[in-house]
Structures are given as structure tokens and as C-alpha cells.
Amino acid sequence: MLAEGPLEEAVEGLDVEIEWKPFELRAEPKATLRPEDPYLPEIWKRAVYPMARRLGVDITLPTVSPQPYTRLAFEGWQFAVEHGLGDAYNHRMFRAFFQESLDLGRLDVLVGLAEEIGLDGPAYRKALEDGTYYERHQDALRDAEAHRVQAVPTILVGDTRLEGVPSTAQLRKAVLDERARLAASVTVEGVVCRADGTGCA
């Protein structure tokens, strides 16, 4: 949620596609955190709240205890993407958890939120109850593992990896560097030749 603003600002005016990918920070059976334990309030006080104030983001430590598992919410995201509402779904889930302290581990809560953004509630519920997107979500987690994602947010721009919430300037530089790298590659009859002479046959 904190990275949304810098991401949008960094690509403003550029022909760039932002592709969100799901990642469960604490997947079952790993225990989730409890907001009443000392760790969470301390890290939010020291790091999250100051950054949120700097970025102008209204965010609050959720009071749901223990924090919910998010597998169903992410499977629901797959449903939303298939119906053209992936970004709207992300934004609504962020607000639901980090502004309204809603329990995203409860199916009835997820269905209500899905309906708010225009998804078919009964179809969404059935997809989650039937596990329709379970394997697709597992593939996404394997993809995250292949990219060594261990923290959120992790932003990949070509070969550049940014963990945590980067500045708009850092993101813009990464995007422009990647565009320049791609522009330096010339494809001729399926052969890729780079400006430095590598890769040519």
C-alpha cells in the first residue's frame, strides 16, 4: 500500500505496465503475527507510521488478531484479474485491511468486498469454495520463490531488485535504465545483438 504512490509517480508519462504478483508473507502453517505482541506496534511506530506520514498515506496497524492467512484473498485476486478488476481488487483489499481492520481471512468479508468493486459475489464465493484458483495461486508463490522474494514490497524492474518502499526517483531510474537496456538490444531474424557486442551470432 505504501509503494503504490511512488510506483504510479515513477511511471507517469511512460509506457510501462505494472504487474502485481501475490506473495504470502506468512503462509499456512507458519504462525501469523498478533498486533498485541510488542514486535508489531514497535516496528509500526519506528518505521511504518513515519514513512506513511512522509508519503501522505492513511494507514493503521490492523487490530485483527492473529493476523489472517491471505491465501483465499489471493485466490480471489486471481478471480478479479480474470474479470478485469485486479487493480481495483488490490486497492480495496489494501484499504479493507490497513484502514478498516477487516479480517481478510473470512470468506464472507472477502465476498462483500468483491461485490463492492463490481464482481459477481456468488461466482466469487463458489470459485474460492471450490478451490478454482488454488493451483494458479500456488504457481504464483513458486514464481515468487524463484525470484527469491522474501519481503513485501519487492519490486522487480528487469534485473533490478528493490526491497522495501523505494523513492520515486529510485523507481524512475530503474525503469529508465531498463528501457535503455532494452533499446540497446536489436533483434535481427530471431538473433539478438546487444550494443556491447554480446549475444551476436
TrEMBL record:
InterPro entries given in the database record: DSBA-like_thioredoxin_dom, Thioredoxin-like_sf
Keywords: Isomerase
Pfam families in the record: DSBA
UniProt name for this protein: 2-hydroxychromene-2-carboxylate isomerase
GO molecular function, a single term: isomerase activity
UniProt keyword annotation of Isomerase present: yes
Taxonomy, superkingdom: Bacteria
Domain DSBA-like thioredoxin residue range list: 4-174
